[in-house]
Task: inverse folding
């Protein structure tokens, strides 16, 4: 009976023919973060003090000018120079050892209350398994007091060797991680809290912090989460206005694309609900390239997706369904950024194996690193891996005309918020450490 009433309410509240559309997002769908903590988090987000070699920040790969991402298929973290598509490996003499194995995910609306899983393979989930609120790569060593899954997520890039930590022989952070992951967080926290400006800001922002020496990685992560959760919250797109009853908000082409999305194209099967994601995992046979997210016993570069976390064979090559608001701002697309355009990723969804066979390596936007190029696509030469990859496809082909694909592109573009490029805090011009800001 409740389902019938709910469906009736949707029919009454939404434009005609929109019974299958999600309900609109509202303020109540999002965690209400503290504004003072968010301001502190803004500075930490762009401060390279949180990286092992003090040369990269969260904002380097999730930049305001690039829609909260980096515009690359697979980026260069530690050991790179420059921003976004202009980022390159620093030098031949100080060579990076591999690319970041996956595309930098977008940050939009990660402060939603309903989010329960993060990262492309879902290796971070809300859970009571380890007594700290999360099932994560840190297991029982993840500290207590992380208030949200977004805060828990924030601590892991800091300890990732090729993202922000660097090589073990280069600095004390990566060296500590090499022993055990939680050994690095106190060192990072001390780096931050001994800077007088930061110490004072933490005392102001957190009621339980009386003196700077009480600051731990927990407060740093909670501040980062407050910034990310407020800064990248956005749901004022034409589609959002349409969901709220403005039947003129969508152009005729975007409205046709909406009908395909929630109809014969089957997009909403996975991109479901108010957040436009089922938060589940699906195998799409996206082209394989890059170093992969290898496990200790993997003989060569490959990425088995969710199976790397679950160790279940049925999860092989499955990746988390991304949310879609502001998707037009966050190219390239796919867990490894295989497609530079919305048209390309849509067509792959419509015919995965056909698209896989016709995909060209030129579509991958990889920063120049000549010594890595011989292995960038080596996984494609493994015939057995390719066969396993092709067998694991969770979606059925769908036939659409070129015009209908263009309609879908127009609909996805209608998910761009009117204020998406005008963020509350933006990028700071300087940070308390005195390090440069990308």
Result:
């Amino acid at each position: 009976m409740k389902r019938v009433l709910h469906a009736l309410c949707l029919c009454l509240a939404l434009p005609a023919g929109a019974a299958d559309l999600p309900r609109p997002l509202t303020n109540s769908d999002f965690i209400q973060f503290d504004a003072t903590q968010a301001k502190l988090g803004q500075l930490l987000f762009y401060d390279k003090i949180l990286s092992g070699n003090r040369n990269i920040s969260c904002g380097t790969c999730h930049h305001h000018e690039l829609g909260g991402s980096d515009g690359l298929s697979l980026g260069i973290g530690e050991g790179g120079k420059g921003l976004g598509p202009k980022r390159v490996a620093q030098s031949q003499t100080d060579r990076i050892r591999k690319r970041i194995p996956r595309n930098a995910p977008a940050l939009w609306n990660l402060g939603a209350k309903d989010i329960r899983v993060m990262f492309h393979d879902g290796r971070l989930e809300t859970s009571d398994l380890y007594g700290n609120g999360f099932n994560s790569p840190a297991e029982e060593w993840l500290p207590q007091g992380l208030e949200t899954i977004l805060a828990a997520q924030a601590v892991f890039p800091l300890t990732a060797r090729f993202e922000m930590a660097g090589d073990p022989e280069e600095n004390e952070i990566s060296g500590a991680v090499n022993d055990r992951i939680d050994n690095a967080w106190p060192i990072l926290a001390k780096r931050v809290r001994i800077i007088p400006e930061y110490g004072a800001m933490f005392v102001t922002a957190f009621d339980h912090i009386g003196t700077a020496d009480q600051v731990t990685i927990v407060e740093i992560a909670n501040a980062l989460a407050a910034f990310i959760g407020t800064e990248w919250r956005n749901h004022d797109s034409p589609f959002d206005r349409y969901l709220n009853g403005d039947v003129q908000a969508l152009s005729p082409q975007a409205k046709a694309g909406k009908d395909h999305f929630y109809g014969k194209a089957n997009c909403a099967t996975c991109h479901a609900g108010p957040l436009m994601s089922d938060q589940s995992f699906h195998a799409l046979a996206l082209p394989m390239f890059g170093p992969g997210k290898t496990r200790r016993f993997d003989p060569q570069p490959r990425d088995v997706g969710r199976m790397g976390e679950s160790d279940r064979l049925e999860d092989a090559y499955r990746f988390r369904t991304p949310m879609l608001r502001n998707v037009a701002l966050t190219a390239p697309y796919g867990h490894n950024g295989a497609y530079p355009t919305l048209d390309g990723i849509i067509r792959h969804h419509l015919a995965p194996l056909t698209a896989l066979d016709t995909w060209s390596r030129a579509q991958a936007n990889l920063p120049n690193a000549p010594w890595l190029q011989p292995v960038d696509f080596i996984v494609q030469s493994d015939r057995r891996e390719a066969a396993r990859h092709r067998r694991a496809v969770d979606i059925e082909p769908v036939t659409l005309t070129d015009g209908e694909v263009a309609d879908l592109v127009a609909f996805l573009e209608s998910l761009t918020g009117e204020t998406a490029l005008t963020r509350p805090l933006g990028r700071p011009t300087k940070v308390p450490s005195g390090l440069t800001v990308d």
User: Anything to note?
Assistant: The chain has two domains: 35-69+104-231, 238-413.
